[in-house]
Design a protein that fits this description.
The chain is globular. Helix 1 packs across helix 2. Strand 6 and strand 7 form a beta hairpin. 18% of the residues lie in helices and 19% in strands. It has two domains: 47 residues, Arc Repressor Mutant, subunit A; 326 residues, paralog of FGE (formylglycine-generating enzyme), CATH 3.90.1580.10. It has 400 residues and is an alpha+beta fold.
Length: 400
């Protein structure tokens, strides 16, 4: 809720209903909305809550806003003199098997080093001090797109090492949802993931390639900028993008599975965010009018920012995993992790048109909606100006 307004997607999560169900209720009650990110008045929200009685499987109690403490937030960059000792912090939790870095491939395209800096966010509360480590990773820049992106960011793919992690949120994580459990161990093989969400320049470059199954609009985004993330793209659009890129390059590009996404986002951490226990608009793009776990209030930008706007990354070298745009995953939505795959594969056992998973939160999300474990689900044909995606590429056999 924001100044007496309620967003449709927040209401759908509150009532544990798909966005299409909330939109159908709006239509029945003659409440004018355009998409899941539309805002409605609190009185209209109460009418929807009343109309949803008997449909929702969850309590209709509205989430309470946490009490904010005064804090001093400082974001600073620094280079670590001992990357190895810094990395030990990330994997000190005994519940995790430390990811094993695959041996280097003899293919030149997989030999480029990447760097991420260390960032600490110090607050007045010592327990909220958060660190991100410096790490040298391996990856590549997609060569087939370089000539099509002369003045824009290239498609930078980062090697995510194999490992085992605990997927989902613990029962004591603030503002968690039942759909984030039960926590379960998942073993993920190595793969490459785009360092940033797909940009508008990268989108246009791939749209110019031969069509595989469906046509794509070359400039779908509301917030224009060649290095801003592409948005207003459906799950079907994102799949077509991957198919065109794979056909053009001969490499197996695809959407990430939900397990791959969370594993890559956490990068060895167990806290709600890879930054630590809380979030601030100084390091992520979300609705800064709201706080999480005693974090500070801040700017609500109401639009996307260029990728890498904050110039920081997690321990695997990935940026913009919290906020900016929601990111499509390959998986279909299930209301819990009961019987979920434990090998990192996509969970697809329903009709093609059933809701698909999105992760990461967006520029319109409350901070709790940007947590590493938070799961969204939308219809695969949905388009919104806070929905985008990033791609992954299966690692060659030499790395597995």
């Amino acid at each position: 809720m924001n100044n007496g307004k309620v967003r449709i997607y927040e209401l759908s999560r509150e009532l544990d209903l798909d966005n299409k169900d909330i939109l159908a209720i709006c239509d029945r009650l003659a409440i004018a909305v355009k998409s899941h990110s539309s805002t409605i008045t609190e009185s209209d929200a109460e009418r929807i809550r009343a109309a949803s009685v008997g449909v929702s499987k969850r309590s209709l109690q509205k989430p309470t806003r946490p009490v904010r403490k005064q804090q001093i937030v400082e974001v600073r960059r620094r280079q670590s003199s001992s990357p190895q000792s810094s990395r030990e912090k990330v994997y000190q939790n005994p519940a995790f098997a430390r990811p094993q870095r695959p041996s280097a491939s003899n293919e030149d395209m997989f030999s480029q080093d990447i760097q991420s800096s260390e960032v600490s966010i110090s607050t007045a509360e010592p327990s909220l001090t958060q660190y991100r480590t410096q790490r040298t990773g391996r990856g590549y820049i997609e060569p087939q797109l370089l000539k099509l992106l002369p003045e824009a960011l290239p498609l930078h793919m980062v090697l995510i090492p194999a490992g085992t992690f605990l997927m989902g949120s613990p029962a004591d994580e603030p503002e968690r949802e039942d759909r984030e459990g039960p926590q379960h161990p998942v073993t993920v093989p190595p793969f490459f993931m785009a360092r940033y969400p797909i940009t508008q320049a990268q989108w246009r470059a791939v749209v110019s390639m031969d069509q595989v199954e469906r046509s794509l609009e070359s400039a779908p985004s509301d917030f224009q900028g060649q290095n801003r993330p592409v948005e207003n793209v459906s799950w079907y659009d994102a799949v077509e993008f991957c198919q065109r890129l794979a056909k053009h390059t001969g490499r197996p590009y695809r959407l990430p599975t939900e397990a791959e996404w969370e594993y890559a986002c956490r990068a060895g951490t167990t806290t709600p965010f890879y930054f630590g226990k809380t979030l601030t608009p100084e390091i992520a793009n979300y609705d800064g009018n709201y706080t999480y776990n005693d974090g500070p209030e801040g700017e609500y930008r109401q639009e996307t920012t260029p990728v890498n706007h904050f110039g920081i990354a997690n321990a695997f070298g990935l940026s913009d995993m919290h906020g900016n745009v929601l990111e499509w995953c390959q998986d279909q939505y299930h209301k819990s992790y009961d019987r979920a795959p434990a090998n990192g594969s996509a969970w697809e056992d329903r009709d093609q048109d059933d809701p698909r998973i999105l992760r990461g939160g967006s520029c319109n999300s409350y901070p709790r909606g940007c947590r590493s474990a938070l799961r969204y689900n939308f219809n695969p044909d949905l388009r919104s100006n806070d929905v985008g995606f990033r791609v992954v590429c299966s690692a060659p056999r030499a790395l597995q």
